[in-house]
Amino acid sequence: MYESVLTYTGDGYDLPGGEKTEKIAKEHKAEVVKATKDYIKKTYKTDIEVHNMVGNKDGVTVFFESKGNLHFYSTAIVPINVKEEKVISSGVWTLEGEVEGAICAALYTLVKEEEFNELDQLLQTFPSQYPIAGRTMHSIENVRGKGHITPYYFIQALI
Questions:
Q1: Which of 44, 61, 89, 148 could form a disulfide with 35 if both were Cys (CB 3.0 to 4.6 A apart)?
Q2: Residue 147: alpha-carbon gap to chain centroid
Q3: CA 116 vs CA 53, 82, 95, 111: distances in Å
């Protein structure tokens, strides 16, 4: 099934084998969110807002956005024991280099803040004159977890 980028919200996004773990994660949402926030704060000294949780084979992938001057999106994985229907809060982890790359992208946009502000201003008027399409912010928050992202472009550092 296809959907227009103009209306896609990220709803219905799924990962292989995640039906049971997503159900458990939603039942224990507060615990998953707390475990993710605590891990990111401890590991990366960053406060976050959780936007979405998508079940995966061994747990739940948590999509989040940083708060503060370094603005980026990324993901963390919270393991879930399906047999015991238990969230393993002490086992939160991230894909190697993913959060670090997102932080680098955020640093780059902060260093080049004036240039990016100019680009953002141009992109606010450009779509009214030219037929370009961007992603919805809702889809970015729900399923785009890599780097500094706007509806029209993204910055992703490869480390």
A1: 89
A2: 8
A3: 30, 44, 27, 9
- Per the CB < 8 A criterion, the answer to whether 127 and 117 are in contact is no
Q: Are the beta carbons of 87 and 32 closer than 8 angstroms?
A: yes
8-state DSSP, 91: G
Q: Confirm if 64 and 40 have CB atoms less than 8 A apart.
A: yes
Tokens coding 143: 């399923």
For residue 80, what are its two tokens?
Answer: 């879930």
Quick: pLDDT tens for 107-148: 999 999 999 999 999 988 887 788 777 888 788 888 877 888
Residue 79, Cα to own-chain centre: how many angstroms? 17
Give whole-number Cα distances, 69 to 15, 102, 103, 120, 148, in Å. 31, 13, 11, 16, 12
Q: How far apart are CA 34 and CA 29, in angstroms?
A: 8
- 8 Å CB contact between 56 and 24: no
Q: Is the pTM of this model over 0.85?
A: yes
Inter-helix orientation angle 98-111/29-44, to 10°: 60
CA-based torsion, 110, 115, 121, 123: positive or negative: negative
